[in-house]
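TASK: fixed-backbone design
INPUT:
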């Protein structure tokens, strides 16, 4: 089933600096993380949806690309399946096992395997994150103040070394590495992300700023985008339920996985995320990388949630351009 991605139509009267900066955001492709159809963290959710159906839906809804997902083919077979639908492989996600002593011995092997997977299918970005870790899963949303386990000095050194190595290998292969901070892991809070960025090579390791996880970790995504500037090379755009987040921080929800069951992440524009502010911050630096819509779990049919987010993001970009002209 072939389908061309839906572009955001842009007309910029005048041509002021502000309007041109806003219009540049229209060049940023809007992709999706397919976890809303098949959740990788909660295997007991509704039965898995076949990959062909997921890819058909992604194309039908007007997304330009996808992260790899459960049941997807690999290598040239995936590349062909995407091309047939007018899609691109935006990213491959690599969850690196980690304890307080740092990434495990297999973390670099896992990262390299995911990099090979990215290259074989003609993808753009290796999104590296830490895997969910016991002791941190339970403290998600309040890890910065709860006195839980944290990476030790040697752990930070080991993590930075692995990311710099992967970043160098990705650059040599014509790809990019972007690190994704994540609730329930050893890099969740803004301070932890800052520590990692200070320890890694900015040329080799960019940021995949997940604005939803940044909110859960206690940060303001708009401030982060202005602060980190061009080091943000990839974006996961997800909105957050304020009510569920409040329950997490009060300890009424037992951690990250329970928060997913409570649907902490919601459709774009329906939660506490300052979506116009995020888009304006991206436009101010003429960002044209991937904007990846993501919603881990939903109360609605998955395609309905994916359609809502796609339309809200596109509308918000058009509105930003109109307001800037």
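OUTPUT:
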């Amino acid at each position: 089933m072939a389908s061309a991605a839906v572009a955001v139509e842009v007309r910029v009267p005048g041509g002021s600096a502000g309007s041109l900066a806003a219009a540049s955001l229209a060049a940023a492709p809007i992709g999706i993380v397919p976890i809303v159809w098949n959740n990788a963290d909660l295997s007991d959710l509704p039965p898995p949806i076949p990959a062909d159906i997921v890819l058909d839906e992604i194309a039908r809804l007007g997304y330009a690309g996808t992260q790899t997902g459960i049941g997807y083919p690999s290598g040239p077979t995936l590349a062909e399946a995407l091309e047939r639908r007018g899609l691109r492989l935006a990213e491959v996600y690599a969850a690196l096992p980690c304890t307080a002593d740092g990434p495990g011995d297999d973390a670099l092997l896992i990262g390299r395997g995911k990099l090979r997977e990215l290259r074989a299918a003609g993808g753009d970005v290796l999104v590296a994150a830490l895997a969910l870790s016991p002791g941190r899963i339970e403290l998600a949303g309040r890890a910065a103040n709860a006195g839980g386990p944290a990476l030790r000095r040697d752990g930070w050194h080991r993590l930075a070394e692995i990311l710099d190595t992967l970043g160098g290998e990705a650059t040599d292969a014509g790809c990019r590495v972007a690190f994704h901070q994540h609730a329930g892991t050893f890099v969740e809070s803004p301070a932890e992300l800052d520590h990692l960025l200070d320890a890694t090579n900015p040329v080799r390791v960019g940021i995949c700023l997940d604005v939803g996880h940044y909110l859960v970790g206690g940060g303001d995504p708009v401030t982060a985008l202005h602060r980190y500037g061009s080091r943000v090379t990839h974006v996961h755009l997800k909105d957050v339920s304020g009510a569920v987040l409040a329950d997490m921080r009060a300890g009424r929800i037992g951690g990250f996985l329970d928060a997913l069951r409570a649907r902490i992440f919601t459709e774009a524009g329906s939660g506490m995320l300052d979506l116009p502010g995020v888009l304006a911050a991206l436009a101010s630096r003429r960002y044209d990388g991937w904007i990846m819509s993501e919603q881990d779990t939903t109360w609605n049919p998955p395609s309905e949630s994916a359609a809502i987010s796609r339309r809200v993001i596109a509308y918000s970009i058009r509105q930003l351009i109109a307001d800037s002209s």
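COMMENT: The two ends are 38 Å apart (CA to CA).
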